UniProtKB/TrEMBL annotation:
Pfam families recorded: TACO1_YebC_N (PF20772), Transcrip_reg (PF01709)
Protein name, UniProt field: Probable transcriptional regulatory protein FILTAD_00489
This protein's UniProt keywords: Cytoplasm, DNA-binding, Transcription, Transcription regulation
Species, as recorded: Filibacter tadaridae
Main location: cytoplasm
GO cellular component, one term: cytosol
GO molecular function: DNA binding
Domain TACO1/YebC-like second and third: 79-235
Residues annotated as domain TACO1/YebC-like N-terminal: 3-74
Compartment(s) where it occurs, according to its Swiss-Prot or TrEMBL record: Cytoplasm
GO biological process, one term: regulation of DNA-templated transcription
The family this protein is said to belong to: Belongs to the TACO1 family. YeeN subfamily.
Amino acid sequence: MGRKWNNIKEKKASRDGETSRIYAKFGREIYVVAKQGEPDPELNQALKVVVERAKTYSVPRAIIDRAIEKAKGGSEENYDELRYEGFGPNGSMVIVDTLTNNVNRTASEVRAAFGKNGGNMGVSGSVSYMFDATAVFGLEGKTADEVLELLMEADVEVRDILEEEDTVIVYAEPDQFHAVQEAFKTVGITEFTIAELTMLAQNELPIPADAQIQFEKMIDALEDLEDVQQVYHNVELSE
């Protein structure tokens, strides 16, 4: 799983240079989740997870609070959560998660981003069966053995724990996100290099350099779309 973690880090690093877009996407997601349940992270577990994820991307507290207050205020703005699946160069697989207030616009824009960059949209389920929904945490200052012992003492089950350079990566089931986080908090660990709910490819696909250039253009085009929240793929990106 190590290479998958690198891909997540690369995606996160690329987004760190586009803060306004990150903030807007998290603001929308926080609003939607807060509106679906209690607009209080302590009473709404799904909202708490999104807020914690936002913190790892350094989303300002003011943006988080503004989105929650908007939900409390009874805004009539509504969004549909839609997932698109498709294929890129050399048979690569891509999942695109969106929040949209105009389904026709979003579908058209996603289809165009695929088609103009050597890809094509597939039907629902054509790609997602090759990915696993996963909670991923990255932290520094501990060894993999120390993290394993900590989680065992807290009776928290995880899929895998790896150590890469100075970072320990924990992979768990999505519904264990809060349990893993709380286990860390009991020993004073509240800062993470990553705390994400993601879709990890079961197998990664190496592609030639020329295809990778086109693939990255396609991913950039998808991520640039206003309604797109997350893009996942199975390509093993080379340096």
